[in-house]
Structure formats: structure tokens, C-alpha cells
Design a protein that fits this description.
A 9-stranded parallel beta sheet has the order 3-2-1-9-8-7-6-5-4. The protein is built from 10 helices and 9 strands. It has one domain: TIM Barrel (Alpha-Beta Barrel). The protein starts with a helix and ends with a helix. With about 300 residues, it is an alpha/beta fold. The chain is globular and about 50 Å long. The structure holds magnesium ion. Magnesium ion binds next to loops.
């Protein structure tokens, strides 16, 4: 009896060791891969100094910034201008920041239709520009919407299926953005946005994580990115107290934990600046780029 018990104990221990071994091995392999993963930085249009797109792109190239995130407002009318300014450069259009009318969760059918129609117009332009996708917030707090119920979520999933199919036809994506509770209570967590993507089950619907909003909502930057996994296709970044250039809020501006998560999911997308500055842009912008490159190396 004692022998049998010892045998079971040994097998149990061996089994436990095997499971630890098989769990830790892939993460070691992933570590070798992730150390080579490049940090692809992107700027929204207002970030770099410069009067024209060409001046802004010249500045970005000097800093090694490889992504450009324009706003979605009148994007269709700007496709040629943006294409011309990007010609011959090592910069790609990253995501398109919103710019749609109405809102998807509106209880007013006109506002909802306005959202769907304007989103499709932006998606078509986004596709022409080779953009990853167009960022969409289902409803801001000030926008009167259906209550947060199962039926509302089901309807949202159905509407996202339609938009996702359209995005997919245009070789781009809808990118759901969770915000902090002061701006949009409906969708606050990166994992919840990813769960919506899972329910929609379309390659045309993905999500983003914005370090600014995550500061207030997430229990773990790394955990949030890992739970989003393959559904994460864009990241926004800002300082963590005042939404300025990374670094302007001193020690609070630590992104290493989140960057670790991005490396662990082999994140191939952009990390895009969405922030203001209280300082001289010519100084705060290069300082932020330097800080993020250092922290990416540390992660
Ligand atoms: Mg954002």
C-alpha cells in the first residue's frame, strides 16, 4: 500500500514537473523570438512639428517613426494627398483615427445609420491607403444609447459583423477602442473589446489598447495585452497622468510591463502617439521616442 502511494506520489510529481516543463518551454522559445521584434512607432498628424505633411514626414523619418495615423474626417478627399506625401518613404499609414458621424449603439436609428454609412466611407479610403484599420468607439458617455444589456451586445455583434465584412472586402479592419470610464463606460477593458472580436468572428474586426485609458481601467498592462492576443492590432500611447508626450509625467511613464505583453503575443502592429505636450515639441517628441525605444529594449 505504501509502495503504491509512493508510486502515485512519484508519478504525480513527475506529471507536475512535465506540465511545468511543457508550459515554460514555449515561453523560452518565444523569448528568443521576441527580442528581435521591432518597435514600430507611429504618430498622429498633430504630433510632429511641421507645416505640411512632407515636413512632418521628413521629421518622422529622422526619428525612425514608421507609421502615420491620420484622422478619418474627410479621409476620402485626402487619399491622393497622403499617397503623394508617402511616396518613396519608409512610412506607412497605421490606423485611421475615428472621424465617423453618429454612433453605433445609438437608440436613434438616424444616428446609428449615420455611423454605419460614414464608417463605410472611411473604411473604403482606409483600404486604399493600405491602413491597418479604422478606430471605432461604439458609444461615448454623452451619446444616448441602448442600455448595457445582453440584447444590446447581441445587436452590436450583428452590426460589427456587417461592418467587419465590409472592412474585409476593402482589406482593412474596424478597430474597437476601449476608453476609460469618464469617456465611455460601455467599453473599457481591452479584454472585453477582444471578447467582442471573438464573438463577431470576422477578420475585419479587431481591437486596440490605449496606454492612457489602460492606466485607469486595467489591473495589468501585460495581462490586458496577453488576453487580447491575436485580436490586438493597434496600440495608442501617451504619458500616464496628463496624456502628454511619454516622459512628460516622469516616473509614471513606465510602459515596460505592457511592452513585455506585446512581445509575448508577438505584436506586429504600431504603437501610435495620441497625446499633447506642455513643452517644446522639438524637445518633447524626440525625448519620448528615445524613452520608448529604451523601455522596449528593457521589456
Ligand atoms: Mg486612443
Amino acid at each position: 500500500m505504501d509502495n503504491r502511494r509512493n508510486f502515485i506520489k512519484k508519478v504525480g510529481l513527475a506529471g507536475a514537473l512535465m506540465s511545468v516543463g511543457s508550459f515554460s518551454l514555449p515561453s523560452c522559445e518565444a523569448k528568443d523570438k521576441k527580442s528581435k521584434l521591432p518597435l514600430k512607432l507611429s504618430f498622429q498628424e498633430g504630433i510632429p512639428p511641421g507645416k505640411s505633411l512632407n515636413e512632418k514626414f521628413d521629421y518622422m523619418e529622422k526619428l525612425g517613426v514608421v507609421g502615420f495615423e491620420p484622422g478619418g474626417g474627410n479621409l476620402a478627399g485626402r487619399v491622393q494627398e497622403i499617397k503623394d506625401a508617402l511616396k518613396g518613404r519608409n512610412i506607412k499609414v497605421s490606423a485611421i483615427c475615428a472621424g465617423f458621424g453618429g454612433w453605433l449603439l445609438a437608440d436613434n436609428p438616424d444616428e446609428k445609420q449615420k455611423c454605419i454609412d460614414s464608417t463605410k466611407t472611411i473604411l473604403a479610403a482606409a483600404g486604399e491607403l493600405g491602413s491597418v484599420g479604422m478606430i471605432l468607439v461604439p458609444a461615448f458617455n454623452h451619446q444616448k444609447s441602448f442600455p448595457h444589456t445582453q440584447a444590446t451586445r447581441d445587436q452590436l455583434v450583428a452590426d460589427l459583423k456587417e461592418l467587419g465584412a465590409y472592412a474585409n472586402e476593402h482589406k482593412t479592419q474596424i478597430i474597437l477602442e476601449p476608453l476609460n470610464r469618464r469617456e465611455a463606460f460601455y467599453l473599457r477593458l481591452v479584454a472585453d473589446a477582444a471578447a467582442l472580436c471573438k464573438d463577431v468572428d470576422s477578420p475585419g474586426v479587431r481591437c486596440l489598447g490605449d496606454f492612457w485609458h489602460m492606466t485607469w481601467e486595467e489591473t495589468s498592462d501585460r495581462g490586458a495585452f496577453i488576453s487580447a492576443g491575436k485580436y490586438l492590432t493597434h496600440v495608442h500611447i501617451a504619458s500616464r497622468k496628463r496624456r502628454l508626450m511619454p516622459g512628460e509625467d516622469g516616473e509614471a511613464d513606465n510602459y515596460v510591463d505592457g511592452f513585455k505583453g506585446l512581445k509575448e503575443i508577438n505584436y506586429q502592429g504600431f504603437v501610435s502617439f495620441e497625446c499633447g505636450t506642455k513643452g517644446n515639441r522639438e524637445e518633447t517628441v524626440p525625448a519620448a521616442v528615445k524613452l520608448l525605444k529604451e523601455q522596449w529594449e528593457q521589456a
